Amino acid sequence: MADSETGTSVDFVRAMIAEDIRTGKNDGRVHTRFPPEPNGYLHIGHAKAFSLNFSIAAEHGGLCNLRFDDTNPLAEDVEYVDSIMEDIRWLGYDWGDRLYYASDYFDQLYELALQLIREGKAFVCDLTSDEVRHYRGTITEPGRNSPYRDRTIEENVDLFDRMRAGEFDNGRRTLRARIDMASPNMNLRDPVMYRILHAAHHRTGSKWCIYPTYDWTHGQSDSIEGVTHSICSIEFEDHRPLYDWYLDELGIYHPRQIEFARLYLSGTVLSKRRLLQLVNEGHVTGWDDARMPTLSGLRRRGYTPASIREFLKRVGVAKTESVIDMALLEHCLREDLNRVAPRVMAVLKPLRVVIDNYPDDKVEMFSAANNPEDPGAGSRELPFSKVVYVERDDFLEDPPRKFFRLAPGREVRLKHAYLVTCESVVKDEATGEVTELRCTYDPESRGGEAPDGRKVRGTLHWVSVGHAVPAEVRLFDHLLLPDDGEGKKGFMELLNPESLSVLTGCMVEPSLCDAKPGRTYQFLRRGYFCIDSVDSQAGALVFNRAVSLRDTWARISKAQAGK
RNA sequence: UGGGGAGUCGUCUAGUGGUAGGACAGCGGACUCUGGAUCCGCCGGCGGGGGUUCGAAUCCUCCCUCCCCAACCA
After folding, report:
1. Which of A66, A142, A190, A522 is least surrounded by Cβ atoms within 10 Å, i.e. has the fewest?
2. Active-site hit among A25, A144, A164, A262
């Protein structure tokens, strides 16, 4: 869809709304809403929905409401209400003073139901849920009318009143719309509007023992709030005729429902039911486990609101069911963090390096830029001494081609410090494991510059042993393994047993000593790491790897191994 | 099988009768005190068959594939 004014293209939802404005519908007003049920934590799929709703309203100077669709007290909880509000705000959206609950409308909904009953368009049905199912027919066969379908209006009003008064047990009766039991659309086969549920509601307490269903609630709530465009996900497409039916029969303000495709992400699952299962069965530590695609999980992992917003923008909005490659989300995070994350040195798997010709007790301070992408980020001082840690992976006794790091006789640069050459290797006599490297440094290379201009390809990160701060580092992999066959394996079989690996004894530079939880850094040459907001403490730092850096060497060595 | 939706590079997504473009991924190169970043390049697609037209991803038609619906969940 090309926008003639800007030359940029817009998605079909925005195009429809633009058309409504052009034709003068709703006096050009745009009012949307995000209607989550508080029965779980929000994930990135929900973020697609609410960012769409909030953004579209904002683009037209309109408003977007937050409305909790709390019509099923059995599934809902205030814990979820709170987390949902926190997550929406975190992503940067604001519903102002328009916080609503479907339960706020229970009285109005009851009156509207009475209106339908009085017009002969709804009836109290005594069929059990099993019987209702049988009477409904199947996908290919029409249903049959309920024997209670033709009760008098007086009887319906009386029975409905008594349902509300609590005279009947759970499931004993329902209020149903009187539409068409032969409709090819199952949603129109006399759908249930109210069920009896003697259960406490997290907001209305025990005031009600009948609860309206989603279909009976949604359109009327939209109408009451003056919502112009009710944007929802595509599985509600064949509910739209029912949405429209209620509004038309009631003769009240009629918003327009528009459906778009939900978001799916490779390597994870975006279904509340399954996420809840992961939590309940202990496959993750909670809704905010850093491996979870929930907003609280992504936040804990180190994802930034900006990166998620950019991701959603790039993903677009359409009606095609699509699975987005997780690599795109990761790309958006790197892109954002590259701009804003302070650089820092941390050695994940330490190997001692002794610089033999460096004075024993000397400590030098080197200035290090906090972010080469952002001169305004300033610099910090790094202590250097005779014994430092480098990454174990940065040394190979017998290096392959194109390996630019440390090896016997090789010279590399210790970032910001000196050029050092590996002179010998110390090993554990019993195991043969390399325990220490003995090196010499070039005193003329202070700051890392070769005095004679000689080229040194390898630059390593390091931490001075005497100044290093120990830390735990958690690395994450996808929750789900790639689905090899054509979805032959079940969800549980695809769970990645190695989605979490914990590294202890990592050594980070001293400037991180009093870093605050939730802050994200780039560990030079390693990736972006966020201080865990739950488990990290001063003196016992815990970092989560949000995403690795692009690793060209990993690709080269993999290709070499393949030969 | 009835109804409702959807099919464009590996993955997303533009396109609305006039040269199929972009992003991510992949591959190659330049540059680099992060094998990062940046820059340049390459790769690769209209589900299929008919038809209309000077011309079709786009219009018509038949077919194929995938998703959703038979909760008193949302």
Report:
1. A142
2. A262
Beta bridge partners of A441: A420
- CA A553 – C1' B5 distance (Å)? 45
CATH of domain A13-260: 3.40.50.620
Instruction: Check if A489 is active-site.
Output: no
Catalytic residue check, A262: yes
Vertex A11, ends A7 and A12: CA angle to 5°?
120
Q: Looking at A48, A173, A256, A272, which residue is catalytic?
A: A272
Q: Which two tokens stand for residue A138?
A: 């199947």
CATH architecture of A346-461: Beta Barrel (2.40)
Considering chain A, tell me which residue range(s) the CATH 3.40.50.620 domain(s) occupy: 13-260
Give the pLDDT confidence of A7-61 residue by residue, as tens digits: 468 999 999 999 999 999 999 999 999 999 999 999 999 999 999 999 999 999 9
Q: Could you tell me where in chain A the CATH 2.40.240.10 domains are found?
A: 346-461
pTM of the model: 0.96
- In chain A, % helix, strand, coil (3-state, to 5) comes to 35, 25, 40
Place of tokens 């009887």: A155
Ramachandran region of residue A11, left (φ > 0), alpha (ψ -120 to 50) or beta? beta
Calculate the angstrom distance between C1' of B6 and CA of A320: 5
Nucleotides in chain B with any atom closer than 7 Å to protein CB:
1-8, 10-16, 23-28, 33-38, 66-74
Question: Which ipTM did the prediction report?
Answer: 0.97
